[in-house]
Structure formats: structure tokens, C-alpha cells
Amino acid sequence: MPPEDDCPLIYGAKPGYAEFALDCLARNRPAIVKSHHLVSRWPATRRWRCKDGTLNSDTLEQDCGHHSVTVADCSRRDFSDHVRLERTLSEVLTLWREGAGQSLYIKDWHLAQAEDSVAPAQKHSRLSSSFYEVLDLVEDDWLNRYYLSTTKDDFRFVYLGQAGTLTPVHRDVYCSYSWSTNIVGRKRWWLFPPAQAQWLRQGSQTIFDYRAIDPTAFPNAHRLCPYIIEQAPGETIFVPSGWYHQVENLDLCLSINHNWLNSYCLTNVCRAIIDKVEEVQLALADVKDLLETRSGDPNWQLQWHEVVQRLVEQDSGWSWTTFWQMVDHNSSIDVQQDPVSPSLRPADSFVAEQIARCRAMYSTRPESQIIAI
């Protein structure tokens, strides 16, 4: 069995920030928050959920049918994911009404981003959108605060899929946190504590579906012991940094999700970048040998680290440069302009300590001599 202090917490009502920070953020521990009374007030709930709890597909289509969405076909595997398609929301809802397309799962739908384009005044100051309100427990979000302020991208998503559709085993982008709130339907989550990650992977491969493991490909899989949680409508789940997980829709399910991070998990994120850099360096060892022995260029180390960082960014979405830009952006915000109340984030001294730890980790890296921060 996993250690007892890893066991997910169940909050019967939204806890105070200090309690949540101590129990979940500081200990990197998962939780379910029974947030029904808050979620019931969201426009997403009032417009897109019928009184009997089912999806109000007519109103959803009226509001958003023209949107282009990314759809995973859960009947067709594509390496570590499912085959992805582009459709309009109306096209998917029409298929479902006709009894077809039951394996289709709308994922990573940037609906909040689309709403921002209609109401751009909200872009730089708020993580919420017109159809939901971010719980104050998770407002200290360095990831989206940076991306919303400096890019046209974000990590705020809507998911919509039929019963039986699945997100395979994975760890969240950048080793970030995630939270997910069900508007309609139920989900089943398999949560694997970080200590079990070694048994989920074999070489470069990760188990795809925990329910159907090939023991010859993953000989240590029998040692896995995930926590299994059923998430009801109106509930919010917090998935900690570095926890692999798999998710299945038990009903037709509509949910809102954010990837996010802050100073509590900053060192985990930093270590994840180091791991990715070392993985790419190992894969490109022959390129390094060529540059060092045959190029004759005294600046070959600069070329080497630039190649590595470029491939790291292509593979994982960011590199050291982006990481430190995010850190600097969030640590330089004027206290008077910070949209997050001091009561909903850790003390400045704690934040400074975590940033210093990351800088110390980075300073031991050979690329730190080339890529200044």
C-alpha cells in the first residue's frame, strides 16, 4: 500500500487557504474538495447542466457550437496518446445525438482563451472566465499568470467526453499541479504517488492503460498500487506535482481544468527540466562528440547547449529560458498590483527561499555558464 501520508484528503467543504496549503501544497498531497455550493453558481453549471444533472447540449451548442475543438478518438491509439482530430463542437454534438462518435473526447479546449478575446480587459488580471470562477485556493498560479500576460497561450481547458473515454497514464505538463472540476458527470481517477513512477516506466515507455498492462513490457507493474477516486459532479480534484494519473469518464462528463504551479512546487519543476535536459543530452551524445572533436569551433559548447535547449523546448514546450522568465515575471510583480491576496499565497520569505534553491540547482548545471539567467 502507498504511505498513509500520501492518501488523498476529502474536504466536505472548501477549506481555508492556510489549511489547504499546509495539507496539500506543502506535502504535495492530492485532495477532493466538495465544492458543489460554489460550482452551482457558475454560469457553466446554470447554462450547461440540466436540472436532472445531465448535459444541456442544446444550450452548450447555442453558446459554443461554432468553436473548433481538439478531439481525441479513444478507439485509436497513437503512441502514448490517442489519435487527435479537429472538429467543431456542433459536429461532435450532432454525432452524439445520432448515437455515433461514442469514442470521441474533446480535450484541451481553450474556451476561456476564446472568451478572453471577447472581453480582453480580463486578460492580464484574472484567471477566471465568464463561465466559471477559479477557487481562491488555487489562485496563486504562476504558470497562467505568466502565459496570459506575455503570450497568446494558456493552460485553462474544458474537457467533454462520453462514458468510457479515457486519458492515458501521464504526468502533467512541466511537472505542474492540476485542478479539475466536474460540471456534469463522474470521473474515475487512478493516482500514482511519485515513488511509484519507476514502475510505470520501462526505458522510454510509460504504461498506457493501467487496466490492461502487458507484464512482459512492464515487469514491475505488479508493484503499482494507485489510489482510485471517483469524482462526482460539483467536486474539484487537486492533483499534486509529479503524480502520474489516469482518468476515465464514467458518464458523459463536462469538466473545467487548469494546469498551474507556484513556489510550493517550483523545485519539482526545476528538477523536471534537469531530467529532460539530461535525457536530450544523452540522446544527442554523438552530436556533442562531433561538435567537440570535428567542428574546430572554439564556441562549440555554446552551439551544443543551444541545440539541446531547442530540442528540449520542442519536446516539452519550454526550456530554461522560459522557466526563468516565468519565475522573474512572478517574483517581480509589485505587491500592490498582485491580483492574489497575501492571505492566498505563501510568505515572501518562503517564495524567495524556493527561488534561491532553484538558482542553486541551476548553478551546478554546465549550461548555466552559457545560458545566463
Description of the molecule:
This protein has two domains: 4-261, Cupin (Jelly Rolls, Sandwich); 264-369. It is globular, with a radius of gyration of 22 Å. Helix content is 35%, strand content 23%. The longest helix is centred in the C-terminal third of the chain and has 18 residues, at 266-283. It has helices spanning 17-25, 36-39, 43-48, 57-64, 89-97, 111-118, 142-150, 197-200, 266-283, 285-294, 300-316, 320-331, 348-363; strands at residues 9-11, 31-34, 68-78, 81-88, 104-109, 156-161, 166-170, 177-184, 187-192, 201-202, 205-206, 227-231, 235-239, 244-249, 253-260. The chain has a nine-stranded mixed sheet. A four-stranded antiparallel sheet has the order 7-14-9-12, with no helix packed on it. It is built from 13 helices and 15 strands. The two termini are 42 Å apart. Residues 121-125 have low confidence and may be disordered. 38% of the residues are buried. The protein is an alpha+beta fold and 373 residues long.
Straight-line distance between termini: 42 Å
Uncertain spans: 121-125
Name the CATH superfamily assignment of the largest domain: Cupin
The percent range for helix content is 25-40%
What structural category arises from helix and sheet content? alpha+beta
- Spatial ordering of strands, largest sheet: 1-2-13-8-15-6-5-3-4
**Strand-and-helix sequence, N→C?**
EHEHHHEEHEHHEEEEHEEEEEEHHHHH
Largest sheet: 9 strands, mixed
At CATH level 3, the topology of the largest domain is Jelly Rolls
Average pLDDT, to the nearest integer?
Answer: 94
CATH architecture of the largest domain: Sandwich
Give the CA-based shape. globular
Task: Give the beta-strand count.
Answer: 15
The rounded Rg comes to 22 Å
Strand content: 15-25%
CATH class membership of the largest domain:
Mainly Beta
Number of helices: 13
Number of domains: 2
Protein name: JmjC domain-containing protein
Domain JmjC: 123-277
InterPro entries: Cupin_8 (IPR041667), JmjC_dom (IPR003347), JMJD6_ArgDemeth/LysHydrox (IPR050910)
Organism: Mixia osmundae (strain CBS 9802 / IAM 14324 / JCM 22182 / KY 12970)
